[in-house]
Predict the 3D structure of the following.
Amino acid sequence: MSETASAHTRMTAFVRGQVQGVGFRWWTRSRALELGLSGHATNLSDGRVQVVAEGEAAAAEQLLTLLREDPSGAQRPGRVDFVAVQYSTPRGEKGFTKR
């Protein structure tokens, strides 16, 4: 395994669309835990959801792909119109919570 594949990161994604009140944070938490990520999904006052995920960079990228995908069969709740993402140094998140 290369150093890049095992590198850890903190991904912060801002998800815009119909993502509040539809089970989106719960779904995001489930996917993040399956991928071994820590962090949180938080409703913002402007209608977006902020997703913070720490862990292996490859797992964070997988979560980002899941957040952006147009799900066939409506497996992901809500509707995602746009995802903005930024990366930073991990801060030591533990577990994954909904806020």
